Amino acid sequence: MPKNSKVVKRELDDEVIESVKDLLSNEDSADDAFKKSELIVDVQEEKDTDVEERSEVKDERPAWNSKLQYILAQVGFSVGLGNVWRFPYLCQKNGGGAYLLPYLILLLVIGIPLFFLELSVGQRIRRGSIGVWNYISPQLGGIGFASCVVCFFVALYYNVIIGWSLFYFSQSFQQPLPWDQCPLVKNASHTFIEPECEKSSATTYYWYREALNISSSISESGGLNWKMTICLLAAWVVVCLAMIKGIQSSGKIMYFSSLFPYVVLTCFLIRALLLNGSVDGIRHLFTPELEIMLEPKVWREAAAQVFFALGLGFGGVIAFSSYNKRDNNCHFDAVLVSFINFFTSILATLVVFAVLGFKANVVNEKCIAENSEMIIKLVKMGNISQDIIPHHVNFSAITAQDYDLVYDIIQKVKEEEFPALHLNACRIEDELNKAVQGTGLAFIAFTEAMTHFPASPFWSVMFFLMLVNLGLGSMFGTIEGIITPVVDTFKVRKEILTVICCLLAFCIGLIFVQRSGNYFVTMFDDYSATLPLLIVVILENIAVSFVYGIDKFMEDLKDMLGFAPNRYYYYMWKYISPLMLLSLLIASIVNMGLSPPGYNAWMEDKASEKFLSYPTWGMVICISLMVLAILPIPVVFIIRRCNLIDDSSGNLASVTYKRGRVLKEPLNLEGDDASLIHGKISSEMSSPNFSKNIYRKQSGSPTLDTAPNGRYGIGYLMADMPDMPESDL
């Protein structure tokens, strides 16, 4: 090497240093132009980049205070009123204990995999339902909007049920309870029992006349029921105050609202088991009718119950999980919450049938006493011979077994004349077979049973406070399914949006507190959620499994969780769950088509319910509810498929998310130069900053209008500097 080689090398090094200084100087002067370009870069400052390299990036998104708070929130959302008044009814109707087998199978096939899917996408992308499905597939972004619409529809009438529970709760601080006895009516000459109450029962009369003051049809508005209007206002005020700060405020309430129902259910179970007849109710529940299990209707109803019990499709599951840490084990959460939900349903069913068994025993004893008096009169009148009555039977203290014996003997001896005697069999099984669900179970059957409890006001207060807490837990998740996606997408203040949402929902909800309001609750419950939610969850499954790609999704899960999920989920998401959901959708449409659209109206003169068909305007509302809930899906698809809105105008299609920041996405990338800076000549180009992370598409990956999100960028790989061509440097 020449002697002056070191001098030459030093001069070359100086030139390189000067070139780098010029490069950095040019970059600083053109920094604004570079930031406005459509190059896909991580726009965090260098100090943020250094922190991220240490995996300690401070996220602007709120987070749960603890894992327990998050689990309680998910449990509170999934465990709702349906666990108490729907699941026991389905058990009773569909073969008792035999119903648990198809329910458990479908929980494993549909429930847990889809629940895990929603938890995963929410935690992975850290956005509400709108942001999640915009991210995965912008053309299917309408899924998120549809979820919000369904959540709003459900919140409208669900809070009305909480209002009813608040009314009964406020009336429970009396001894005796106001629904314990039929009211007396006085006129000028004498006093008599209210005819409507005498024809039905004290609790039935109180529910329809005192609480709802119900009209005889949906067409008869009858004006507002002011008692229920005040209760509805109170319910919305509670929800608004609890949700106004998001999970910071609602999360603390979850400790009480989620745990208190378990305390009450356990106390009720212990108390009910000490009552006479409770074992009869539980025995009736778990007497399996295996032949019923083979009927398709049982599997359809079990699948629907699994689907709605976990709150799939509402967006609440996604919203809650979006506040998790990215490395949280959401697979464990999915299994845990699903089985907590299942065992809660079992606990509630045991409580319901223990209490109904006690009630059936009380009713049966009354029936035996009344019919024994009739038999004594018939014997005295000579219609029944004294000789056929067994000598050991004492009608003054007759047992259920002795009455059954006497009844069977009279039925055999007086075979032709028996119907004219008007005797009842008085069997507990007949009373337990009277299947009740929904408001009929909570506000009539269960309420009547509690009037026979010792210290009945205490148990009534506990029961309706439990219903309020169950309802609020589900309402928090439902409202979160509206607030979180809208705040994430449109960047509005959460407090203002919460107040506006609750105020608007209260104003619309006034239709449910008219005298005919109960019929509108039935309408919304039947038509606003069932089919739209099924369609939403089917499209969620398709979007992840086929549009985004199940293989890539499994890799993302492995990256996020730190372990590969069992291949069981791969086959469930790709093959089994979509087929099961499509079958459930078809079965639901067929069932809805075969069932005449209508409602059970209360007839005051007959003191009984009568099925009435919806009027024409009612049918229009039913159809409109389903159409409005599904409409965002095709609308967003058409708009983005046909580019009806300019992507450069800042619409949702050109927005993605990066750790709480909104970034413009690259649109219509063509060519190497165009992919870097559009509409810029070479002299206006700023040089890339090597300290920032530059992303490129994976080869062979499908085109997705998304930008990298966090350290798990879907569809992108980080381009390490040594791999870049010299010309780029």
UniProtKB/TrEMBL annotation:
Membrane-spanning segments: 68-87, 99-119, 140-169, 226-247, 259-282, 302-323, 335-356, 458-483, 495-513, 533-550, 571-594, 614-639
InterPro entries: B(0)AT2, Na/ntran_symport, Neutral_aa_SLC6, SNS_sf
PROSITE patterns cross-referenced by the UniProt entry: NA_NEUROTRAN_SYMP_1, NA_NEUROTRAN_SYMP_2, NA_NEUROTRAN_SYMP_3
Residues at which Na(+) binds: 76, 79, 83, 341, 470, 474
Keyword Transmembrane helix in annotation: yes
Pfam families according to UniProt: SNF
A single cellular component GO annotation: plasma membrane
One of the GO biological process terms: L-leucine transport
A molecular-function term among this protein's GO annotations: proline:sodium symporter activity
Keyword set includes Transferase: no
Catalytic activity line of the entry: L-valine(in) + Na(+)(in) = L-valine(out) + Na(+)(out); L-asparagine(in) + Na(+)(in) = L-asparagine(out) + Na(+)(out); L-proline(in) + Na(+)(in) = L-proline(out) + Na(+)(out); L-phenylalanine(in) + Na(+)(in) = L-phenylalanine(out) + Na(+)(out)
Lipid bilayer topology: Multi-pass membrane protein
SUPFAM superfamilies recorded: SNF-like
Broad class of where this protein is predominantly found: membrane
Subcellular localization(s) per the UniProt record: Membrane
Keywords, in A-Z order: Amino-acid transport, Glycoprotein, Ion transport, Membrane, Metal-binding, Neurotransmitter transport, Phosphoprotein, Sodium, Sodium transport, Symport, Transmembrane, Transmembrane helix, Transport
Top-level taxon of the source organism: Eukaryota
UniProt family annotation: Belongs to the sodium:neurotransmitter symporter (SNF) (TC 2.A.22) family. SLC6A15 subfamily.
NCBIfam families: Na_transp
Protein's name according to its UniProt entry: Transporter
Classification of source organism: Eukaryota, Metazoa, Chordata, Craniata, Vertebrata
